[in-house]
Write a structure and sequence with these properties.
The chain has about 700 residues and is α+β, with helices and mostly antiparallel strands. Helix content is about 50%, strand content about 15%. Strands 9, 10, 11, 12, 13, 14, 15, 16 and 17 form a 9-stranded mixed beta sheet that branches. Strands 1, 2, 5, 6, 7 and 8 form a 6-stranded mixed beta sheet that branches. A two-stranded antiparallel ribbon has the order 3-4. A hairpin with a 2-residue loop joins strand 7 (about 135) and strand 8 (about 140-150). The longest helix is centred in the C-terminal third of the chain and has 55 residues, at about 555-610. It is globular. The two termini are about 30 Å apart. Bound molecules: adenosine-5'-diphosphate (ADP) and magnesium ion (MG).
Length: about 700
């Protein structure tokens, strides 16, 4: 296969291929579209389409697809072949600019939350030229946005691109104020660290809960969990190493910058981190990474679990969203600069983020809300559901000095006046020690740690980009045209620190006392579940902000509210139904047959010697019998609770009923079954146990 440098990006229609296959004029025009967002004319599109098709066909492709990200959270594709009949009875391979730019999949079955009546089946997909096309199998995949005929976004990419545009627009206004006239574009970048579990396919197949819901709904605690910390960064098992090797190769061919891989804290848990890139590309790449992980795993007889909480009692999986903003000249705006002026600019962008995170805590919480992630947040393995910011001691001291107009010790200057002092270069090591913060400054970027492992990173970045755009807009509105720029700037930074310092927390976010302090003393929001936070998507302040930047229309927000809550409800209903089914058809019968055999054994013993007490057998049978009774009654209660969901007035009410009754009953049913597991002979238990799943890979 050659070396990595030979095959990296070999399945991508990237800049190298464009340069080699397009005329100079077409290339320049496409490049302008990619870099500056200018519109593409049809002539150029035709030329690009032909070059793309020729390249794809030369790589063995026969089909093309508009690859998009509907609100189901996974990617979708509908394949069309390139063939067109030719008059001589044969075919030629054709692909036009029109087909490249736009397609009309029959989209009636994708969730739209009422935006597109099902009879109006057609939505359309539109090419996103900023994300390279690539080949998957025999198909040329063209990254696209997905909209309804009325122009409403039905996907995650459209609002993400809009949010990047909003951020670009407002950030440019700020840069101009600092005299920077040459920058053309500001983009946000993301490096998402992806956690996942690997288990064997053989065991996975024996667990209906894993197959239907992606997580175990039953399972007693194994004798050993993660308490020894011997898995984290541990030696990688040969079978896993072979998986990782092939995964890297596949990702590299797709131009994905897979960089770091290691074992995670929980047994059977691993992580992959790519090198960061532009947000929408990082989003596409992360979706692809998740897909390729699952495919490669299956080639190795393994299953890759991307669920946030596949196993109770051991750490779940998250996704760290490392986020920064940079100019087209390569300047990271979250990097402290070398000159006083650069530092003032850095502090302003830093403040914009602090203000954004504080003002829109709810939107950030909402952006990571799923039924799966509710298991993680606040469970002492992931940040709490309370959003706060970690800055580190050094930066914190700088902000305090500015706030109180007192000298900042570190800078050896008398007063921390912007535009006068030079901030020290931050040492990355001093800022990155706190792993418990949901939103941590790590030297030149922020790490948003609340995302669930299966989440698309689009949602979090839409909210982040737009909320920061809003802060920047408020700043620019205030500063543009002001006479004494430096004083106004200083005052504004000072005011931001005063108004928003309650969101800054440098302590241990896993500590129970923090939640008390955060909610009672600081007034921070604590939305523990998806059902709690989701209604706030439609709060006036949020709708106003998101619509004013053109990122969502009000109708789009309403539809997203519906879809996300529907998703929450459906997920838990499927889990509950799976539990009832497994309890009734697998677990209870297994316990019964074991209890019956034990009873038989006791009877046999007694027939040999009537003086035998058989107290062991009697005890086990009694306990198991009580447990099967409990399991049966809990399963019935759960079924009744599920039926009563039909009475819910709307999706909001249904989600509250699920939160308040269904989840509790699922927990109770599980406790009974898990207890029975510890009393039942392993040979009778109808599925692999936690010990098998977590430690059983050969
Ligand atoms: P860890 O968080 O495990 O210590 P790193 O901080 O080294 O790991 O890297 C985490 C991720 O942050 C990587 O994907 C990396 O590419 C990304 N990253 C580094 N710099 C930036 C940046 N300026 N903007 C966005 N992401 C970045
Ligand atoms: Mg990290």
């Amino acid at each position: 296969m050659g070396t990595v440098t030979d095959y990296f990006g070999s399945l991508v229609f990237d800049d190298r291929v464009m340069k080699a296959t397009l005329s100079a004029k077409v290339y320049a025009s496409l490049k302008k579209t990619i870099d500056e967002g200018t519109e593409l004319d049809i002539g150029v599109a035709n030329a690009v389409a032909t070059a793309m098709k020729d390249w794809a066909v030369s790589k063995g492709a026969t089909h093309y697809t508009h690859w998009f990200q509907p609100l189901t959270g996974i990617t979708a594709e509908k394949h069309d072949s390139f063939i067109t009949p030719s008059p001589d009875g044969g075919v030629i391979m054709e692909f036009s600019g029109k087909e490249l730019i736009k397609s009309e999949p029959d989209a009636s079955s994708f969730p739209s939350g009422g935006l597109r009546a099902t009879f109006e089946a057609r939505g359309y997909t539109a090419w996103d030229p900023t994300s390279y096309a690539f080949i998957k199998g025999k198909t040329l995949c063209i990254p696209t946005a997905f909209c309804s005929y009325g122009g409403h976004a039905l996907d995650k990419k459209t609002p993400l691109l809009r949010s990047m545009e909003a951020l670009n627009k407002q950030a440019l206004r700020i840069l101009r104020l600092f005299g920077n006239d040459s920058v053309k574009r500001v983009t946000s970048s993301v490096g998402p660290e992806q956690e996942y579990f690997l288990i064997t396919k053989e065991m996975y197949d024996q667990r209906p809960d894993l197959r239907f819901t992606g997580r175990t709904l039953f399972g007693a605690k194994p004798p050993k969990g993660q308490e020894m910390d011997d898995h984290y960064f541990g030696v990688i098992k040969p079978r896993v190493a072979a998986f990782m090797e092939e995964l890297n190769d596949e990702l590299w061919k797709l131009g994905i910058l897979a960089k770091t891989e290691h074992n995670e804290v929980a047994p059977a848990q691993h992580e992959l981190a790519p090198i960061y890139t532009t947000t929408n590309i990082a989003t596409d790449h992360n979706q692809l990474t998740m897909e390729v992980m699952q495919k490669v795993a299956s080639r190795h007889g393994l299953v890759c679990l991307l669920h946030e909480k596949p196993f109770a009692g051991v750490n779940g999986s998250g996704k760290h969203n490392n986020w920064s903003i940079a100019t087209d000249a390569g300047q990271n705006l979250l990097s402290p600069g070398a000159t006083p002026y650069e530092n003032a600019q850095f502090l302003l962008f830093l403040c914009a983020v602090i203000k954004a995170v504080d003002d829109y805590q709810d939107l950030l919480r909402i952006s990571v809300a799923t039924a799966g992630n509710d298991h993680r947040l606040g469970a002492n393995e992931a940040p709490p559901a309370v959003v706060s910011i970690f800055l580190g001691d050094e930066l914190n001291a700088v902000l305090e000095a500015i706030e109180t107009d007192t000298p900042y010790k570190g800078a050896e200057k008398t007063q921390m006046k912007l535009g006068v002092d030079v901030l020290p270069k931050f040492n990355r090591d001093t800022t990155d020690r706190n792993r418990t913060s949901p939103f941590a400054f790590t030297g030149n970027k922020f790490e948003f740690r609340m995302l669930g492992s299966s989440n698309s990173i689009a949602c979090a970045n839409i909210m982040l980009n737009t909320a920061v755009a809003e802060s920047l807009k408020i700043y620019a509105d205030r500063l543009e045209g002001v006479e004494d720029f430096e004083t106004a700037l200083h005052e504004m930074i000072q005011k931001t620190i005063k108004d928003h310092k309650h969101i800054i927390f440098n302590g241990n976010g896993y500590d129970e006392s923090w939640i008390k302090e955060a909610t009672e003393k600081r007034g921070l929001l604590n939305y523990r579940t998806t059902a709690d936070c989701m209604p706030h998507l439609l709060d006036k302040k949020n709708v106003d902000m998101l619509t004013s930047h053109g990122v969502f229309t009000e109708a789009e927000l309403k539809s997203r509210y519906e879809i996300m809550l529907e998703n929450y409800c459906k997920t838990i209903i499927i889990e509950a139904n799976t539990m009832v089914d497994m309890a009734k058809t697998q677990i209870a019968p297994a316990i019964e047959s074991y209890a019956a055999d034990i009873a038989k054994a006791a009877a046999a013993k007694k027939s040999l010697d009537s003086a035998l007490t058989c107290s062991y057998e009697t005890g086990v049978v009694r306990k198991l019998s009580a447990l099967t009774d409990r399991i049966a009654s809990k399963a019935e209660e759960l079924e009744t609770a599920l039926i009563s969901l039909c009475d819910a007035e709307d999706i909001g009410a249904e989600s509250i009923m699920i939160r308040d009754t269904v989840l509790g009953l699922m927990g109770e049913l599980r406790v009974a079954c898990d207890e029975a597991e510890t009393l039942t002979a392993k040979t009778y238990w109808p599925m692999p146990t936690y010990a098998d799943l977590l430690f059983g890979m050969k």
